[in-house]
## 1
Amino acid sequence: MCEWWIRAPVGKRIEMTVTDFNSGNYDCNQAYALFNYAGNNFHNSATYRLCGTSRVLVRTAAEQLNVIFNGRVATGPRFTATYRVI
């Protein structure tokens, strides 16, 4: 499991583009990514869960973004993303 806590200067937001995501299977309990737009813990309504294969654009409401990638399967899960401050 990998976790990133991304912070921007006060008054700015974060835009993350997931350019390649593949959980290796479609079991969201084995491999997934979590994005929390509010920079909080992952157990609230500001959390988005990604599994399967996807590309996605994430924009925060404030200056914080928390991301977790969990790839616990042997079939080659991958996660590639870029971000910028806006």
## 2
Amino acid sequence: MRAVLIIVIENCKNQTKSGYLQSLYQEKSFCFHGLDHMLLLMEYILDREGMPVDSGDRRHLVKMDLMKKRTKIITDAETVPRTVKFCPIRNRLNTRENVFAVTIYSRQNASIQGVIRNSRGSACFRSGMEVLRMICECLPA
């Protein structure tokens, strides 16, 4: 199984990229402010869709007892993403180069693996950090 996500970068202000994620399996798009937030949203979307299946348990800074877990189960996707307002008039990015299609084939070693594509071409990635690096290479500083 694989998952396909569309990433649109709308603003690059003060070296902070903002935009939205769109999954082919959900109607709602998820706004992000910063590439770190984008990566967390990608994980959230993949967990919600259940594909591709995560290969192992996640590690935590604090050892948790499974019976005493105090994590809140999120049922509504609208509570997770931060609300970010965009002004399309101020968007100075080239529209061909700020749209990325990410196909995720597997999730191993607490990260994602797959292929990222845009107007410049495509490349395979082995981790979420490589996705961030490739996006930064294609966008102006």
